[in-house]
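Researcher: Let's do a round of design. I'm pasting the structure tokens now; please hold your answer until I've finished.
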């Protein structure tokens, strides 16, 4: 079967984008599995930074070439995201010169690198291409198999095995869950088969449940009805089945809790008993005090590395009121017209539901638990950009219904004239 590519994507470019995606996300998962099982040492450190540096220039060049080939690729989303990052860099430079903590400065520079690389990937890659879909399904199957194989008492935590040669470099459950969530969302959006989507829903929820990453587990459960309601031809039937499934789970919740007493996911049922949730609450209160004392400019790096507010208020602390509002507007505003124009339109466009589901998940996590340099922001804006291009200039562009241009500029040239006789 001949492989086809979307407009503007060559086979070589698609190979670059696929390799970057699978090395950055599933590759991270596999590397830390090898590290956690003692198969190898941390020869690439934490893995994500060196791999991101390797792909930084190739992805930037691919993005530049795509814009050179088609100027329509440059949208207002691309430009505003570029301006936001320019503002972010300016804040970093000014505060670094004023003596800000270098560890936090380095953390922010790495965050920009990760977000921009993710933006390039999600704006350029052809998720509908057969090679990507096959690799995505295979990667998800392998990651799920790893989680279930190495789980103990319903919990996947490789550090507990005590086999890692470099335990300090081993990723936490958030790193594993990030790789899984970033992979499953585009695969779900571009999977047209309902039975296969149902398998992905079940395996994905089970994997993240055993992985004990509460935020990513909640994010996937949040995305599933958004995706499925959009694809469903019988929406009332879908809603009825969703209600029945919820009631069944609620009825058997005591059995689930008894079977998996050590799983952190169950803390979602009562966050007051969660040590992590209480700690995050105190960090949020500290951020609120910082904002109250510095409402306009914030107070850059006024916390110990890692002890930042685990929500979008972290942007206000480090970037000030302008950066906070700009980030929220970038992430949320494009989703509003997408929802009203497309979600109930009866069409089933994977580019749309991919961008819209990512936006919903990103906003949920920014409000509840994630830092403002989360890679999901870059992924969401990249998916927005790709959807916008496909709708206006790509395969979903509306037909041109304007009248055809006149073949003759002068009407007299289009109408046969009688020959003139000589006097």
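Researcher: That's everything. Go ahead.
Model: Designed sequence:
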């Amino acid at each position: 079967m001949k492989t086809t590519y979307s407009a503007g994507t060559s086979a070589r470019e698609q190979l670059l984008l696929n390799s970057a995606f699978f090395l950055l996300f599933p590759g991270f998962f596999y590397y830390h599995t090898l590290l956690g099982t003692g198969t190898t040492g941390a020869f690439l450190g934490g893995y994500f930074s060196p791999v991101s540096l390797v792909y930084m220039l190739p992805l930037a060049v691919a993005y530049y070439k795509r814009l050179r080939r088609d100027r329509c690729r440059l949208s207002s989303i691309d430009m505003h995201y570029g301006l936001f990052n320019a503002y972010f860099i300016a804040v970093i430079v000014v505060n670094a010169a004023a003596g800000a903590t270098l560890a936090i400065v380095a953390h922010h520079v790495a965050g920009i690198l990760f977000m921009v690389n993710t933006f390039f990937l999600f704006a350029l890659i052809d998720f509908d291409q057969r090679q990507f879909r096959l690799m995505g399904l295979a990667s998800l199957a392998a990651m799920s198999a790893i989680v279930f194989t190495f789980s103990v008492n319903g919990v996947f935590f490789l550090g507990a095995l005590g086999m890692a040669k470099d335990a300090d470099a081993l990723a936490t459950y958030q790193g594993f869950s990030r790789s899984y969530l970033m992979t499953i969302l585009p695969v779900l959006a571009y999977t047209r088969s309902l039975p296969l989507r149902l398998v992905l829903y079940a395996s994905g929820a089970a994997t993240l449940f055993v992985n004990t990453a509460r935020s990513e587990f909640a994010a996937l459960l949040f995305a599933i009805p958004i995706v499925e309601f959009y694809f469903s031809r019988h929406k009332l039937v879908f809603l009825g089945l969703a209600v029945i499934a919820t009631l069944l789970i609620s009825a058997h919740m005591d059995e689930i809790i008894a079977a998996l007493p050590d799983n952190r996911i169950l803390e979602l049922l009562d966050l007051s008993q969660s040590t992590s949730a209480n700690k995050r609450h105190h960090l949020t209160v500290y951020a609120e005090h910082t904002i109250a004392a510095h409402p306009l400019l914030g107070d850059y790096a006024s916390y110990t590395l890692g002890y930042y507010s685990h929500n979008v208020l972290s942007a206000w602390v480090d970037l000030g009121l302008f950066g906070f509002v700009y980030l929220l507007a970038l992430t949320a505003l494009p989703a509003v017209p997408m929802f009203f124009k497309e979600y109930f339109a009866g069409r089933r466009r994977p580019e749309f539901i991919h961008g819209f589901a990512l936006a919903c998940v990103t906003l949920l996590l920014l409000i509840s638990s994630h830092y403002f340099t989360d890679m999901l922001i870059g992924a969401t804006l990249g998916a927005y950009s790709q959807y916008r291009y496909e709708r206006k200039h790509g395969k979903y562009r509306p037909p041109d219904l304007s009248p055809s241009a006149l073949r003759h500029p002068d009407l007299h040239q289009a109408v046969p004239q009688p020959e003139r006789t000589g006097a």
